[in-house]
Amino acid sequence: MNSNLRSLVLPILASVVLAACQTDGPTARGVDGKIPDPVSTLPRVVQTTVFSSSTSTSIPPDSVGVDEQNSVGVEPDTSKPSSTTSTTLPPALPPANSQFSDLKLGFEQISVIEKVTGIAWLGDAMFASTQPGPIFRIDGETVEVALDLTADTHRFQPGSERGVLGVAIDPRNQRLFVNYTDQNDDTLVVSYELEDGVAALDSRREVLFIDQPGLGHNGGRLYFDRVGNLLISSGDGGASSGWDAQDTTKLLGSILRVTPNLDSPGYSIPPDNPNADGITDRPEVIARGFRNPWSFAVDEPTGDIWIGDVGNTMVEELSVLRRVDWGANFGWPYFEGNTRKNRGEPENLVFPVYDYGHDVGVAVMAGYPCRDCGISKLDGAILFGDMSGPIWAVGSDGVSRLDAERVHILTGWAQGPDKSLYALAYNGIFKVVER
Questions:
Q1: CATH number of the domain that residue 29 is part of
Q2: pLDDT band, residue 90 (cuts 50/70/90)
């Protein structure tokens, strides 16, 4: 794909200032020129056997996944005979890639709201953040502005990564959370009380602030687990050739996990964060070494976090952060995908599940696992795509490109309360369907 076309289709993710990365001699795949071992696409799930008076099998209920205190498990019922057993089954594993061969994906438009950057749900109501500033509430045929941050954020400009970048709802008190860049181009996460579906402006609280060194690579995705821990994606800030992603005094180039205070601004640190003591890294950080993790999705039954890290000059990468790897370093700017950029990397880097060059796409959009999403051939697969159109699925045999319709500039993905999947685009919101 030539540079003119790449510039044309980056109205959301392309920074106005591209961070140059120094190379150390010829690029090489993997450490010391070796190709890294493949990363397993299979979730790490513990099967828990429980005792009962009758034989049955069941799928475990939705768990927080990213929080150990919500792991699946049932205590034995000692008041009943235990002559038979029932097994709590793990979630569906990725299907064989051969299942995708005759699959045709389509997109049914459900909203014409433009420049959508995120979706959160409260009951049946959808809250959609848009980069220019408005957050819309969509409930059936009702569409209204729940909050307008146009005056608070940077004026929308094509080719800029600034603006309103993410939205979430706190499951504990149903406050609306928004991630945006302010007039000084710094990152703010704020929250509001909702009154009849509309944000009460006098209830605003500042939850988190990040001093941004540049004009892009801001991340922006928000996600709450079921007990109120908030995940936040943070890019490298676009001003240090990527080295801010390796600075353990900063919140840049990282996936953050905090617990917003219920009755005041700010947050606390979940005690099971890998760096909760703040000794080896910032206590908010559960993984670092990212350039611009614009999109991520949590596979709740497994706790796996699938991350799309937007690349620089060579590749786009899809990575997975598993619970046992919290605290890991994903390598930027030592590596872009599997390609070396600089030497002197720390040990035990986590390499991508998949990367692809800019002859294929321009900006990766990590998607959700399909678990009862209404498309049986994708059950257990991880869906992801590129801003320019291609869609892939992660199966048990690796990654396959799907036969799929295109939306006009893919900006992200979302999952509905009924597990249906949605594509977010420059020209609206679309439900993912099988044709």
A1: 2.120.10.30
A2: low
